[in-house]
Amino acid sequence: MDMLLAIPAVGFYLIALLLVIPGLANNNGIKVTPVFAAACMAIIFHILLLKDLIFAGAGQNLSILNVASLISVIIACLTTVAMLKMRIWFLLPVIYSFAAINLAASALLPGAFITHLEAHPQVLLHISLALFSYSTLTIASLYAIQLAWLDHKLKHKKSLAMNPNIPPLMMVERQLFKIIIVGYALLTVTLLTGYLFINDIIAQGKTHKAILSLIAWCVYSVLLWGHYQQGWRGRRVIWFSLVGAFLLTLAYFGSRFVKEIIIGM
Known about the structure:
GO terms for molecular function: heme binding. InterPro entries: Cyt_c_assembly, YpjD/HemX. This is Inner membrane protein YpjD. It comes from Photobacterium angustum. The protein is an all-alpha fold. It has two domains: 118 residues; 146 residues, no CATH class. Helices cover 75% and strands 2% of the residues. Helix 6 packs antiparallel against helix 7. The longest helix is centred in the middle third of the chain and has 35 residues. The radius of gyration is 19 Å and the shape is flat.
């Protein structure tokens, strides 16, 4: 049953990729409607697959692969909706490829990490906020990579003006900070709910998550202060964005990766 959902999901992600990538390589316009339709179909099958994987049996199976697949479909949903108003074609190949790889891994390499969130709704709220904050700030890190690529092209005097699918540098920077502000707000609430609702947040095995998440929050705080108070732009903004996302990745997946993937092997 899982493969019957995984195969069409991967197939529709590939169709979306094939509709986007040629437009990035030349000056032809990318048609929004076919890309949006293919992506929506992929996301629907992806969500149905996750429903079976996470809610199979008693409790919820939040293995590292299932969580990674869940994060990837959240990112795919957010960016697919965003494509209707913003030129984010440069990001879509990375996002859809990431989603396809994650859903294939979760279907082919099932793991187990059973929880019972129905008994702890406050923990469910905290986890939901954490997923959305991480997804949003991951999108911001992809924007930072796009910003670095555009900046590199402009510094080497390579004109991008003829390609209507590539957004202007200033537009990308403005969008980047809008996304960071949303992700930063979600991360702030995530940290607050963690300390309020999770009694053993600093217990053994969870301390690194709290510390790394707090350090990441400090990184984004400094980044926002530096941009709006000191006028930071360019490489410094890019590096702060990437470092913040890297710290959150270590916080959310570091120990789980070692326990479930490396030791589990």
